[in-house]
Design brief:
By secondary structure, the protein is an alpha/beta fold. Helix 12 packs across helix 14. The radius of gyration is 24 Å and the shape is globular. The protein binds FE2/S2 (inorganic) cluster and magnesium ion. Magnesium ion binds next to loops.
Amino acid sequence: MTRKTPDQLRSARWFAPDDLRAFGHRSRAMQQGYAPEEWKGRPVIAILNTWSEAQPCHMHFKTRVDDVKRGILMAGGFPMELPALSLSESFLKPTTMLYRNMLAMDAEELLRGHPVDGVVLMGGCDKTTPGLLLGATSAGYPAIYLPAGPMLRGNWKGKTLGSGSDGWKYWDERRAGNISEKEWLEVEGGIARSYGTCMTMGTASTMTAIAESIGMSLPGASSIPAADAGHIRMASACGRRIVEMVWEDLTPAKIQTRKSFENAITVAMAMGCSTNAIIHLIAQARRAGQDIGLNDFEIASRKVPVIANVRPSGDTYLMEDFYYAGGLPGLMGRIKEHLHLDVMTVTGKTLGENIAGAEVYNSDVIRTVDDPIYAEGALAVLKGNLAPDGCVIKPSACDPRFLKHTGPALVFDDYPSMKKAVDDESLDVTADHVLILRNAGPQGGPGMPEWGMLPIPKKLVKQGVRDMVRISDARMSGTSYGACILHVAPESFIGGPLALVQNGDMITLDVDARTINLDISDAEMEKRRAAWVAPERNYERGYGWMFSKHIQQANEGCDFDFLRTDFGAPVKEPAI
Ligand code: FES
Ligand code: MG
């Protein structure tokens, strides 16, 4: 392997020349207290840190970044921490998905504009993983992903609590009058008891596992709990490794091939992944120049069963248990025959070399393919006259009786009216109804919020109903569960067929046949389409306006059209 020489470093363009510009850069570095020997001939390693005081999942990043710097310095690099948009799933409204592409742009431009040779990406909370990776993929410099790590298991009265999932579950019990206010407060205090990301198999754990299985993280990195000392050592290891990656010129383009995305899809299916994985993986693959689409998920879903017994697909365990059971390398070892083992990773070795000898220590947590928790992959893609460009369901997390279902539609045009109606105990609804929420897609939401797990009407909750069919163009949290059909494309806000459904229309879904249909004639559909009136736009200025002009539909990954790799000529390196 040929190694870069110090004069070939990108940062040398800023620091090395004997001219007035470089004088400015050097004198300003000295203003910061650095002596020339601290940067001369050394790779400058950016650390994109998504820490903020509004980001509980990344609370430890404020100091964990020092461990990354320690690794960089040890390996002879020069660290440069650059704060990036922190996208807190908990606090940011209307939805972090509105801003994933903003983080991607932030990351790409921070890297390109600064004297950067390589980068450690620090993220974990849902959209931060795809946001950072999309940006780093487009920037193209050597990059390694450091996942925040899941938080510790929740605890209440000696019972284990899982992020999101148990919030929804106990909220239904509270609505049914089975939990007191005092107990509810105890749940609030016990469900998130350390820093780190949601510890169910939500979007965070899904996306960090994807980052690792694509080859962008160190082996095992995504499973280490945030509060484990192993996480500190892994942070330092990321710092040491990225310096070497710069000398090796190991760029994302050499790692993110079609095969590595196929691996990520396979792993996601076996993990019982969040439905959000589909949108982010399509976007990331396309940034890497790989044409991945819904069909690739469908193929994987038919061949790989869910073997990670982690909630919400599993019924007992959480990410902490998954780590003790052998973590992602253990899981990948169990589905080896479905993976491309010859792909390159950030270690400079192949995936096969990375997971050689990986063991599973608890076969109830990480099952075998012959003893799965769900016989097919976690997600299924459905198509039909209601969703010509596809929609998604997570059959592993829903009541099996709904995998084939016909029922009358009960339609809501917006979230507030739906919320009000479901709490009205006189609502005319049965457990066989199909609840529909529209205007919740990328344009309509706006930003495609996680509204897809519509609450079960209160009247039915009291009767003991805990699942029913729900359809929307929204997303749902990876920690959610139930017979929720999501990401309907094209979305209703731009006139997709979901916009044309009327109360009482019969809807039929058949997950095994992968179909979803509105049982009306084509002629009736056309008649309704002709009478359809587009809703008012959500934004007339600002970022939201730009978003609404350029956002693509869910089946295309919700990237901005102008950020696509095939949009126009490649961006040039900045003049210095
Ligand atoms: Fe940050 Fe769930 S809220 S990962
Ligand atoms: Mg989430």
